[in-house]
Design a protein that fits this description.
binds adenosine monophosphate; about 30% helix; alpha+beta; HIT family, subunit A
């Protein structure tokens, strides 16, 4: 699923709105519509890959750039401390099949210790 069928392609292209925190030529960070922590930002590449494994195989430099953006967002919003989660596969809770890292931070992190 990509292009017109993919909600995160629509958000990164600007076709549908989101609360954007930071964007570059290759990556958009925006707030999750149903936050599960004080800070819950999705780090999403503009390139469509179904999950983090596919992205790492196809374009590892882009994954590294996503990590750098997560660090900048966390520096600005939660003292640089955060959890970064990639749900991978429906049984692991993935519901949008365009790779995205959940940046979770703030005073109340869900799920306790990993
Ligand atoms: P996952 O279940 O890991 O695939 O995560 C998908 C995330 O996307 C969920 O946490 C949703 O709340 C979030 N989400 C879905 N639609 C939107 C949207 N239009 N804007 C922001 N976040 C969204």
């Amino acid at each position: 699923m990509s292009g017109n069928d993919c909600i995160f392609c629509a958000i990164t292209s600007g076709a549908i709105p989101a609360e954007i925190v930071e964007s570059t030529d290759t990556i958009v960070a925006f707030r999750d519509i149903a936050p599960k922590a004080d800070v819950h930002v999705l780090i999403v590449p503009r390139e469509h890959h179904a999950n983090v494994v596919d992205l790492a195989a196809a374009n590892p430099a882009l994954l590294a750039d996503m990590a750098a953006m997560a660090g900048r967002v966390a520096d600005a919003q939660c003292n640089g401390e955060f959890r970064w989660v990639f749900n991978t596969g429906p049984r692991a809770g993935q519901s949008v099949f365009h790779v995205h890292g959940h940046l979770l931070g703030g005073s109340e992190l869900p799920w306790g210790d990993a």
